[in-house]
Amino acid sequence: MRILLVDDEIRFAHTLRRGLVAEGFVVELAHDGPTGLELATIHPFDVLILDIMLPGRNGYEIVRDLRQRQVWTPVLMLSAKDGEYDQADAFDLGADDYLTKPFSFVVLQARLRALARRGAPERPPILTAGDLRLDPAQRRVIRGGTVLRLTPREYGVLEFLMRHKNTVVTKAEILQAVWDTHYDGDDNVVEVYIGYLRRKIDAPFGTTTIHTVRGVGYSLHDPVG
């Protein structure tokens, strides 16, 4: 198994490398973010071990950039922090596993083997409606050759509609999927965001993608026009 270990604690990294090599792993080292990102992009590895706190580019940035570059190698994040928000951030950005220092070497080996067996995660499928494309991996929306700048909430509404293409969805369903579960405001906020989306994804292109179904909700179809 070929592993890239990126950690700026040089003594720790070399000690960990020796232990992994003794167990039959092939381990390459990097001690800063830019070098780790370059190696992970250019060379194939079975698993990447990334420390979060790195000089030049932190582990969060590296895993985010790798996923944006469509590098799907499994990533195990290392950190001295054990907060749930730190772990959530790592997973949200595309990490596959998380270990808090200090950790058991036996557990690390087991995690690495599990990640290698699982292999690179399947790339999320690109959602389409005519020439409108939404890439969940990069959170990017393109119409034709134009990249559309959406707010996080606009993106969430559009992704929900595109995942339910050709299906009528209600305001309540959109609120439940995109807004906080404890939101108790007016459901007309959905109508407002549908208007924002239409002005960004349809009006400039002379198309109609999002349709209002009176008394029911909204439906997204391949564009007309």
Helix-strand blueprint:
Blueprint: E1 2-6, H1 10-22, E2 26-30, H2 33-42, E3 47-51, H3 59-68, E4 75-79, H4 84-93, E5 97-100, H5 105-118, E6 127-129, E7 132-135, E8 140-143, E9 146-148, H6 152-163, E10 169-170, H7 171-178, H8 188-202, E11 208-213, E12 217-224
Parallel strand pairs: 1-2, 1-3, 3-4, 4-5
Antiparallel strand pairs: 6-7, 7-8, 8-9, 10-12, 11-12
Describe the protein in words:
The structure is a single chain. The protein has 225 residues and is α/β, with parallel strands linked by helices. The protein has two domains: 2-118, Rossmann fold; 127-224, Arc Repressor Mutant, subunit A. It is 41% helix and 24% strand. The protein contains eight helices and twelve strands. The protein has helices spanning 10-22, 33-42, 59-68, 84-93, 105-118, 152-163, 171-178, 188-202; strands at residues 2-6, 26-30, 47-51, 75-79, 97-100, 127-129, 132-135, 140-143, 146-148, 169-170, 208-213, 217-224. The strands form three sheets. A five-stranded parallel beta sheet has the order 2-1-3-4-5, sandwiched between helices. Strands 6-7-8-9 form a four-stranded antiparallel beta sheet, with helices on one face. Helix 4 (84-93) links the parallel strand 4 (75-79) and strand 5 (97-100). Helix 2 runs parallel beside helix 3 (59-68) and helix 6 (152-163) packs across helix 8. The chain is elongated, with a radius of gyration of 22 Å.
